[in-house]
Amino acid sequence: MTLLKSHIRILKELVNKGEKGVTASKLVSKREYRVKVIKFLESEGLVKVSYSGGGMRVYATERAKKLLERIEKERPELLVNS
Fold first, then answer.
1. Which SUPFAM superfamilies match (predicted)?
2. CA dist., res. 43 & res. 48, Å (int)
């Protein structure tokens, strides 16, 4: 799995929001990128998506939480400015 800093930023924001989740448009503003990024993270098992009406709500999975904990221990510089 290859993650960019932007993916880590998104995961960090989702983990901080907890069970409330976040609307996808707040995570990625451009629609053409939003679908690709969210689908990628979903395919890796890092996020769960619920669809309602025309929007998507995104939630962090346990795998995402564990990944962020591991990054925080091994590579904390990746979490700076995110």
1. Winged helix' DNA-binding domain
2. 9
What's residue 79's pLDDT?
64
* This prediction's pTM: 0.82
40-79 pLDDT, tens digit each: 999 999 999 999 888 899 999 999 999 989 888 887 776 6
What are the chain's domains? 5-79 (1.10.10.10)
Radius of gyration in angstroms for the set of CA atoms belonging to the chain, rounded to a whole number:
12
Is residue 8 within 8 A of residue 78, CB to CB? The reply is yes
- The CA–CA distances, whole Å, from 49 to 38, 39, 45, 60, 72 equal 8, 9, 10, 9, 25
Pairing outcome for strands 47-52 and 55-60:
antiparallel
Partner residues linked to 30 by β-bridges: none
Tokens 């800093």 sit at which residue?
A: 5
